[in-house]
Amino acid sequence: MTNSQTGIFENEIEEKFQNQSVGSLISFYRRSSSLSITSFGQFFEQNSSGIEETNGKKSKDLTLSSDYTKEILFNEENILNSLSQNKKEKDKEIENQKQKRKTIQKKNEEEKEKEKEKEKEKEIEKEKNEEEKENEIKNEKELQKEEKKEKEKKKKKKKKKKKEKKKVDEEEKEKDEEKKEEEEEEEEEEEEKEKKKKRKRKRKRKRKRKRKRTRKRTRGRH
Q1: What are the boundaries of the region Disordered (predicted)?
Q2: Residues 102-108, mean pLDDT to the nearest whole number
């Protein structure tokens, strides 16, 4: 301990211990020393001086002897070392508490970041699902549109085919009718020819018979 530190401590003892109450001395001593209250009380009793009357009761004199002052000075280095050690331990404990708080705070911040990441992932997943759903709806609409288009196309094709068939049938019918008419005409022509042939043969026979009759008449005249 340096001289300046010793002087400060002596002044403090002079100020604190002159005519102070027992309670004040004990309180100061507890704050300044690692000694227990019991050891201090025993030491105080050994170094106190005299007894006086107060309201008919006896009490210890509150003035400390010079021996007590010497004893305090003798132990000052131990007291200061103890205080220094206590301060170091307290500082260490405070530092440990700070580190614990920092660790807890860091852990909490990491947890918060994880939660934020989870929320972000959930939001991304939600957007992805919504996009997939929209794409499904869009694809479904496109598919329905294509199906409708294909259906209309088939319908038109069928209608066209039906129309063409009808046209072909009508043409075939017309052809059949024309053919029938031609056949009828041919039949009529054939019938007419036959009739003509018959009339011709008939006329021929008739002329032949007529000539025969004429010849017979002619022979009869001669």
Answers
A1: 80-222
A2: 92
Residue ranges per domain, the chain? 3-50+58-104
The tens digit of pLDDT for each residue in 116-163 reads 999 999 999 999 999 999 999 999 999 999 999 999 999 998 888 888
Overall size of the chain counted in residues: 222
- Please give, one letter per residue, the 3-state secondary structure of the chain: CCHHHHHHHHHHHHHHHCCCCHHHHHHHHHHHCCCCHHHHHHHHHHHECCEEEECCEEEECCCECHHHHHHHHHCHHHHHHHHHHHHHHHHHHHHHHHHHHHHHHHHHHHHHHHHHHHHHHHHHHHHHHHHHHHHHHHHHHHHHHHHHHHHHHHHHHHHHHHHHHHHHHHHHHHHHHHHHHHHHHHHHHHHHHHHHHHHHHHHHHHHHHHHHHHHHHHHHHC
pLDDT digit string, tens, across residues 157-177: 888 888 898 899 999 998 888
Cα 74 → chain centroid? 74
**Greater model confidence, 47 or 198:** 198
